[in-house]
Each structure stands twice: as C-alpha cells, then as structure tokens.
Amino acid sequence: MKDVSKLLESRNTVRVVDATLRDGGLVNDFYFTEEFAKALYMTNVKAGVDYMELGYRADKELFDIDKFGPWKFSDDDYIRKIVGDNDTNLKLAIMADAGRCNYKQDIHDRKDSPVDLIRVATYLHQMPEAIDMIEDAHAKGYETTCNIMAVSTAQMDEVAAALELLGKTPVDCIYIVDSYGSLYPEQIQRIADLYCSIGAKYGKSIGIHAHDNQKLAFANTIEAVGDGVDYLDATYNCMGRGAGNCAMELLLGFLKNPKYKERYAFKFVEDYINPLKEQGVVWGYDLQYLATGLLNQHPRNAIAFTKDKRKDYAEFYQEMLLLD
Amino acid sequence: MKDVSKLLESRNTVRVVDATLRDGGLVNDFYFTEEFAKALYMTNVKAGVDYMELGYRADKELFDIDKFGPWKFSDDDYIRKIVGDNDTNLKLAIMADAGRCNYKQDIHDRKDSPVDLIRVATYLHQMPEAIDMIEDAHAKGYETTCNIMAVSTAQMDEVAAALELLGKTPVDCIYIVDSYGSLYPEQIQRIADLYCSIGAKYGKSIGIHAHDNQKLAFANTIEAVGDGVDYLDATYNCMGRGAGNCAMELLLGFLKNPKYKERYAFKFVEDYINPLKEQGVVWGYDLQYLATGLLNQHPRNAIAFTKDKRKDYAEFYQEMLLLD
Question: Is the model's pLDDT at A2 over the cut of 80?
C-alpha cells in the first residue's frame, strides 16, 4: 500500500508533458490552426506545464508535406512563428521517430533552435538507431528522452537489456509507452519497478505515456507517479490517437504542486478542444479501441473501423479475436 | 505490489452486478422500453453477469408515478412481465433507499417476488433505518446488501463504527460507494482494507460502486477486486448518473473467469446503448463532473449544468471552487 502522503506531496522531480499537438495531431493529420497552437502554448505556460511537445520532426523525403499539417515536421522556423523566443519556464520538445527522421540533417544545433528536448521514439528492435539519435541530439546540446513503444508486447528481459544499453547513453529520461492501451495498473507497477530500478542505477528519470483504450490512461499515469515515475505525458481532454491519452485536466487536478493550475485546462478544453470535436475530429474511448486494447493489438484496425464509420462493434471484436 | 497471479485468477467469490436500469435510470427518469429491459436481461444472462439490479422500489407517496418510468418503482408484477419466472442463473436485485421506501408495505415476501436481493442504500446518518430495512428484508427471505453512500465525505472512524454495527446484522454484503467519483485508487485500497478487515471478522462480503467523474470507475473497481472486494457494480458503456459508472464491457474483459463473456456486452452497447445516446440521453465523463469529483461534491450542480446545456466549464469550476 502506498504511503498516504504521496497523494498530498508535490515531488519536485515531476514533469508534466503536454503531447496534444503531437499525439492529437495523429487524429487530424496535424492540421491545427496557428491560433490553436498559440492558445495551447499560452495555456501550458499559465497552467504550469513543464514541457510542450510540438510535433514530429518527420523526414520530408518519406512524408509528403502536402498531406500533413505543419506539426508533422515541426520546422524550427515554424515553431518560432508560434512561440517567438519562448521566454518562459515552459520547455519545448519534438518527437523524432527512429527510421522516420533524417536527424543528422534535420535536427540542428540547440543554439539555433527553439527546441529544448528531443524525444526519440523507437521500437525495441530499432534500439541501435535510437541510441545513435540520442547521442546525436545530446552532442547538439539537447535534453533527450527515449520512448520505447509497445512495451505491452515486449519480453521484459529484452526491455531490461534495452534499459541497460540506454543507461550507458546520455539520455535523460526513458519512457514506458503503453501504445496499445493494453496494460492494467498492476502491470504498470511491475514495469515501473523495472524501469525505475535500472534508471536509478544510471541516474536516469523515468516517464510514462499511456493510452485510454481501457479508460486507464489516467489511472496508469497516477499509478506510475506513485511508483517513482517523473515524466508524465498528457493531452487536453485526452486528444490523441485512437482512444486518446491521459487527460491533462485530470492530471493537473491530481498533482498537488501549486504551480499546476487545472483551471486553465478547463478553459482550453472549453474554447479549443470541444470545438474540434464539434467539427467532427474523432478520438476517445469507444469499443473498437477496447477491443484492440484487450487483445494487446496495435490500434490500426480500430482506427480503420472509426474512419469507415462502422458501428458493428461486436462483429469487429469477433474479427479481432479471429485474426491470425 | 499485488501478486501477478491476481490478474489471471478467477476468484469464485466475485459477483458482477449490472446496475444499468437503476443508475442509468437516473439519467432518463427510468423511461426504458420493455424491449430494452428484456434485451438487457437476456444480455446479462448470456454474458454470465451474476446480479441484475432492476431499479428502485420507491415510495409512491413520495414520488409521482406519472413523472417516472416503471423502474423507479420496480413493482414485482412489472418485473415478472420482463423476466417471466427468471429460470436462469442471473439473480435479480432492487434498490431500497433509506427514507424513500415504504419497505414494510412495498417489499413482499421473497416467495411472492421475483427479486432475490434487496440493496439498501443509505447515508451514514440513516444507519438505524437502514439496519431496520436489512432486518426486514432478511426476515422476508431476501439476500441483502448495504450500500453506504458518499464514503468520500465520511470520517473513517464513523465508517468503521457503521461497519461494526452492520457486522452484527444479517446483511450479506457491504458496499463501498464513491457517489461523488472523488476517490483515487490509492484511497480505494485503504478503504477496501478497512471494509475487508471488518467484513472478514463478521463473515460479510464487500462490494464497490464507483463513478467515473475522474475516469477512475473501472480503475477503482479493479483496484478493489485486487484488494479482496467481491461484489462489483457496472453498467453498459458506463450508463449512470452524471459521469456514469464502471463500464460493464471493461469489467467483463478484465475478469478472467470464462463464464464472463464480454462479447455480449459489445453487442448490447451496439444495439441498445448507442441508440440511446443518439436519441439525446446524456451521461459520461465531462469537465463539469470532473469539477465536482475533484472538489468532493455531490454531482447535483454538474447535472444541472448539463441539463442547462451550459458549455462554460471554466466558469462552472470557478463557481464550485467559490461555493460556501
């Protein structure tokens, strides 16, 4: 049983990371207006959020710039257009996917960029490239995190081996990423225990990025923070791929550090997120996402179900059960 | 840290209780069609649900029968119209509120009723009446539970005193009820520990009824089952007052006893629950319910906000913060 004081304390190593533009961008192909991005930025500043993830730095040779909004690529110049010199306490992050980012060319020296943190997203089998990317970004002056995706399908001994490898890199933080929204809090506790014990050995922080397929993104995030996980990803009203993420308004309401002010989250949801929903942008808990989460599958089939406006949830669940 | 086997085991003392007609009835004044009720009953039978709560047995001198659908009163004859002789493994329950049920007159002998279980709902201060009701129902041949509401606002020493009183009654099960959706899993663990330890002393089962104001109804329910709580309330797609309850489809997907078949829950949501939503019946997580949950308040102001179709969440949160 966790110490009762943990519900009241404000551990000063906790960092709240807004991932709305990046994970939310996956549901509208990153077509956010500049007004939206600026308002989100100001909300994060006022709400005491620690990091704002702007989007991907995707390789323009792999992705057509005409098919995505600006946060698929998050050019330094475009970021400056939104945040100016960012003379605030809010740090800025971008995500670089192993295999999808021409990082040597497209990630410039930190002194020439408004970005503070490079978040390297990788599957376990891409770990050598991810480590190259971390070393490259660190050499250019950035903070770095490594986000090991789809941990619910990985063998824990392989994860442990990857954590040992990462321990020897300059990475600042290693993320538990429940990409499929498949994990229960009891499993998060065990995984956090592994990450935190190896992290402690090498002086690395641990983070969590959760999905809401089983309505557990917030529950898993607060389980993790109670277990010693410090970097906590959230998005306003859960906006993110498929079932979405841990809700920022819930997380800020939970954390007791007075610098976090959830009332600004209420206002942003009211003024900017709910209008997106009214315009027809779709995300959030629904039974197709429960189906893939329960079965520990990638959400791509559930996303296709949603795009096709199918309503035959029971038939879909049956299809997923019978997949070879 | 809980035993890993708990995620795989199927403890045979667990009971799943469908509360859709009763808690869901609070959002449509109990106006369900007979077709809906019959389909729900058949779904529960096929899905392996253990108890189906039909509705309240409200006092017709206190509530106008013209202002509510039939499940506000759950007459034995009306129940029979839906379930016939109920020649199934599904047991039937009704809720009797302390102070709102003429139980001596309106609850008949079990041999003359299709009902198996009387759920007595009470606030702490009504405990003497609740105990009378339990004894009355037990003497008439029923199983009984006592649902102590709004536990998040109660002093734990008073709750402990109530549990000791209930231990000496014939009640079969005592419920943890998070009426305000205010509790975090860490708190549920501590409360479950208290209930289970006193329950064990007197041979009473413990149950949980959760609300989703902070998207924690399912998380709190699975926390509780891991702590030894056996009676688990759920509703299809969370249908229930305000933010709603623990989702039946999530709970059946989590429980590993093969008698629970979540695919029937998928089908019922598809065929009956989603159409209700399309007709404009409103429930589920939204920021007005987060506001009252965070502040440990009764949801009545949030329900009024919803009914008034207000959208100014930030202003509402401010109003709740400044309530005297």
Answer: no
Question: Is B278 at the interface with chain A, CB within 8 A?
Answer: no
DSSP state of B235: B
- What one-character DSSP code corresponds to residue B72? G
Q: How far apart are CA A236 and CA B66, in angstroms?
A: 42
Q: How close does chain A come to B253, measured CA to CA in Å?
A: 7
B295, closest residue in chain A (CA to CA): A253
- Chain A partners of B266 at a C-beta cutoff of 8 Å? 287, 291, 313-314, 317
Are A213 and A299 a contacting pair, CB within 8 Å?
yes
Instruction: Decide: A96 and A130 in contact? Cβ < 8 Å.
Output: no
- The DSSP code for A231 is E
Block mean pLDDT (10 aa), chain B, length 324? 71 96 98 98 98 98 97 98 97 98 98 98 97 98 97 95 98 98 96 98 98 98 96 98 98 95 98 97 98 96 96 97 86
Please answer yes or no on whether A269 and B313 come within 8 Å at the CB atom: yes
ipTM of model: 0.95
Please report the sign of the dihedral spanned by the C-alpha atoms of residue A219, residue A222, residue A227, residue A232: positive
List beta partners, residue A15.
A231
Q: Is A184 on the interface with B (CB under 8 A)?
A: yes
- B contact test, residue of A214, A273, A295, A305 with most B CBs within 10 A: A214
Q: Report how far residue A43's alpha carbon sits from residue A263's, in angstroms, rounded to the nearest whole number.
A: 10
Residue position matching structure tokens 């078949």: B261
Candidates A223, A269, A313, A322: best to mutate against B (most CBs of B within 10 A) is: A313
> Which of B1, B193, B313 is the closest to A270 by Cβ?
B313
pLDDT of residue B323: 87
Candidates A7, A260, A270, A306: best to mutate against B (most CBs of B within 10 A) is: A270
Residue from A215, A198, A214, A196 nearest A206 by CA: A196
- Side-chain-side CA neighbours of residue B162 (13 Å): 26
Q: Distance between CA A58 and CA A322 in Å, rounded?
A: 35
- Residues B175 and B196: their CA atoms lie apart, in Å, by 10
**What pLDDT digit, counting tens, does each position of A116-154 carry?**
999 999 999 999 999 999 999 999 999 999 999 999 999
Whether chain A has a CB inside 8 Å of the CB on B247: the answer is: yes
CB atoms within 10 A of CB A289: 27
